[in-house]
Sequence to fold (104 residues):
Amino acid sequence: MTLTELATILESLGYPVRYDHFSSSPTLPFIIYTNPSDNTFGADNKVTYKTKNIDVEVYTKNKDSVLEAKIEKLFDDNEIFYDDPDEIFIQSENVYKRTYYITI
Fold:
């Protein structure tokens, strides 16, 4: 799966989606995804397989269990494994951020 394919999957939820950041703040909820690191596997001085570690961040005004269930179903339906998500409240922005960690 490519980053473009992942974006298309995330966009199917109907919320604003961007890589890394928006140039201006969209209406909540919205989704940001980033590729903070990659993994390479190989042998005999050759890379034989690459994966991308992706953070999918979901920003909401309030705790939104319904949206979380939609995202998790979307990942399940597309066979995208996600690790235990983290959630924080960003007081300065007055928003919740839930981060899903996936590998593509």
User: Anything to note?
Assistant: The two ends are 6 Å apart (CA to CA). The CA atoms of residues 3 and 104 lie 8 Å apart. The chain is about 20% helix and 50% strand.
